[in-house]
Amino acid sequence: MRNDSREPSPGHPEDVPVLRNDPNPGNQLPRVLVLAESEADAELISNELQSTWMTLMTGRVDSADAFIAALDAFAPDVVVSGHPVGQFGALELLEMLRAARPTAAFIIVTDALTDAESVAAIRAGAEDLILKVYVSRITTAINEALAVRRPLRQLSPRQVEVLQLVAQGSRTRDIAARLGLSIKTVESHRGEIMKRLGLHDLVSLVRYAMRVGLVPSGGDVSQQRRGEGEGVPV
Known about the structure:
5 strands; 234 residues; 9 helices; Rossmann fold; Arc Repressor Mutant, subunit A; alpha/beta
């Protein structure tokens, strides 16, 4: 990945430019990936990010293929996305993000969304929706997204997988079979997850997973664990 401010070359989605460098290479700065097909939209978002007091590592891509490649190569903590991008709308892009970087936040910047589109995006796990005329809200949205996800840094990738499956309503034995683990190991992971997140019951765990977009937020939380008697603290 080149360490400069040039735009990614067409046909080379792995070339994710860094627009603002880390003044202290020992620090792990938040990584924000801008996904915008329109040059004007990309400049609007990038200029706002560069004008803020926040110090960020920022990259930009302009297609769904480049986006998928950058999720691995750039490993963003936050994605700020235009809507739509090519043939893909916000919901499809969010699904791509959840599959590759489930703990990353997804913020939509757009001219307008219908009420139905807005509700669907939030329920699907989008962190925020920002109209272009209020693009200055990006800083606040990024700060909030990073703050609420900070506890996730204490979890290993395996624990994130277990958290996501638990929140989706998967039973312990099904999680064990899917991940190739013993039931005892899954139970151990679940207990450690709750300890590290400072949560005391599975309803709170599901709510947190919904809040950070690990799972869609539609439906009644109390029904996520129906049939397994898992409304009780671990």
